[in-house]
Design brief:
By secondary structure, this protein is mainly alpha-helical. The protein is 88% helix and 0% strand. Helix 1 runs parallel beside helix 6, helix 2 runs antiparallel to helix 3 and helix 2 runs parallel beside helix 5.
Length: 179
C-alpha cells in the first residue's frame, strides 16, 4: 500500500545501512573539523586562508566527481554485484585513471593560475601560504583516490572495512591539521 510507513522494513534494513550512515557521518565531521582545529591552534586568518584553498580544491573535486566518477560509478558497481570481478576491476581502474588523471592535471593548472590571480585578491597572507595550496590540492587528489576505491568497497559490501577506513581518515585529518 502506498503512503503507508512500513516499520518492519525500516527495522530490517537499518542494520544494513548502519555502517554506511556512520561512515558518511564521519566523513562530514572530518571534512569540516580541520577548520575548527586550525582556528583553535592558530587564528581566524589562517582559517580563512585554508578555507579559500579548500573551497577551490573542493570545487575541482566536485567537478570531477559529478562529470566522471558519478557517471561511471553505477556501471562499476553493477559489474561487481553480478560477479564480473575482472571486468569490474578493469572498469574501476579506468575510472581511477581518468578521474584522478584529470583531477591531477586540472589541479596543476589551478595552482599555476592561482599564482597569478592571488595577488589580485589584495590579501598578502594568501601569498605567504601558496605552498599550502599545493598540499591542499594533493589532499583532495587523495580524497578522489579514496572515493574511487570506496566504490569497490561499497559494491562488494565491505561496509565494516569502509567504516574502519573512514575512522582512520578522520584521525589522519586531525593529526595532519595539528601538524
Amino acid at each position: 500500500r502506498s503512503g503507508r510507513i512500513r516499520i518492519k522494513w525500516f527495522k530490517e534494513n537499518l542494520g544494513v545501512s548502519g555502517y554506511l550512515f556512520a561512515n558518511d557521518a564521519i566523513g562530514v565531521v572530518s571534512q569540516y573539523s580541520d577548520r575548527y582545529l586550525i582556528a583553535w591552534l592558530l587564528n581566524i586568518e589562517m582559517v580563512g586562508v585554508y578555507t579559500l584553498f579548500a573551497q577551490i580544491a573542493n570545487a575541482l573535486f566536485t567537478l570531477i566527481n559529478s562529470s566522471i566518477m558519478q557517471v561511471h560509478r553505477p556501471d562499476v558497481i553493477k559489474l561487481y554485484r553480478i560477479g564480473k570481478l575482472v571486468e569490474a576491476k578493469r572498469q574501476l581502474w579506468h575510472l581511477q585513471i581518468e578521474a584522478l588523471g584529470v583531477q591531477a592535471a586540472l589541479s596543476i593548472v589551478m595552482v599555476i593560475l592561482f599564482n597569478f590571480l592571488a595577488p589580485l585578491l589584495g590579501q598578502p597572507i594568501i601569498l605567504e601560504y601558496i605552498p599550502l595550496f599545493w598540499l591542499v590540492m594533493v589532499a583532495w587528489w587523495v580524497k578522489g583516490l579514496n572515493w574511487t576505491y570506496s566504490t569497490r568497497l561499497y559494491a562488494q559490501s565491505y561496509d565494516r572495512f569502509s567504516l574502519s577506513l573512514g575512522v582512520i581518515r578522520a584521525v589522519l585529518i586531525v593529526v595532519l591539521s595539528i601538524a
